């Protein structure tokens, strides 16, 4: 008789531990530095340095994302400003986010000291992918069901698709009942201390995405936004077994 030793269960915070920081550079080309400070606020916490280069004579205002091998993304100043304008309304789900290219190239870079507004922005990116594909599994954890209740309008809209939606949280209130969404009450540390949105990509592995963050200080989060299929699969495997997709 052969006895098979089970592997210890990997938690969401274990997934975070596998991600290493990779600093990147944002270069703002603009006539004034009005947006630079806001971008530094938003991106400095994501291990991204922001520098300013003034332009004159009606030259195009833009933001470049640079890596060691040069500029990899060029986005207009107006498009990148959407990130810092505070708009996290449900209507943005399903829109073609103008800052998508920047966020995708930041894949794998950890962030620190995100506040709740920034967390909602990053969550919208995962929700938007799920909305556009319209099938597959979307898993979301806002720590407490009272926070999920504030986001119910977004999930009512997402539930009009063929997505299999699962929402996790500490049951501090009775969660909203949404047709097409299953709630999973839990007081486990992974649920109580972690904010996440994980989309399995449906039929397309290139659409896999995950936001996973741990609240280390009151209202401040550390984590990662990733599009790495392997890392997304690991995050799904870390979910409670009764909510994992069937093999």
Explain this structure to me?
The protein has 247 residues and is α/β, with parallel strands linked by helices. The protein has 9 helices and 11 strands. The protein has a domain at 12-20 and 95-243: Endonuclease, Chain A. It has a 7-stranded mixed beta sheet, with helices on both faces. A hairpin with a 2-residue loop joins β3 (62-67) and β4 (70-76). It is elongated and about 55 Å long.
Would you kindly provide a brief summary of this structure?
The chain is 28% helix and 30% strand. The chain is α/β, with parallel strands linked by helices.
Beta strand %: 25-35%
User: Mean of the pLDDT scores?
Assistant: 81
Category from helices, strands and their pairing? alpha/beta
Q: State the helix count.
A: 9
Q: Which sequence of SSEs, written as H and E, runs from N to C? A: HEHEEEHHEHEHHEEHEEEH
Main pleated-sheet profile: 7 strands, mixed
How many extended strands?
11
> The CATH topology of the domain at 12-20 and 95-243, please?
Endonuclease, Chain A
Q: Helix share of residues?
A: 25-40%
Specify the CATH class of the domain at 12-20 and 95-243.
Alpha Beta
Q: pLDDT under 50 segments (min length 5)?
A: 1-8
Strand order of the largest sheet: 5-11-10-9-6-7-8
Calculate Rg over CA atoms: 19 Å
The span between the termini is 27 Å
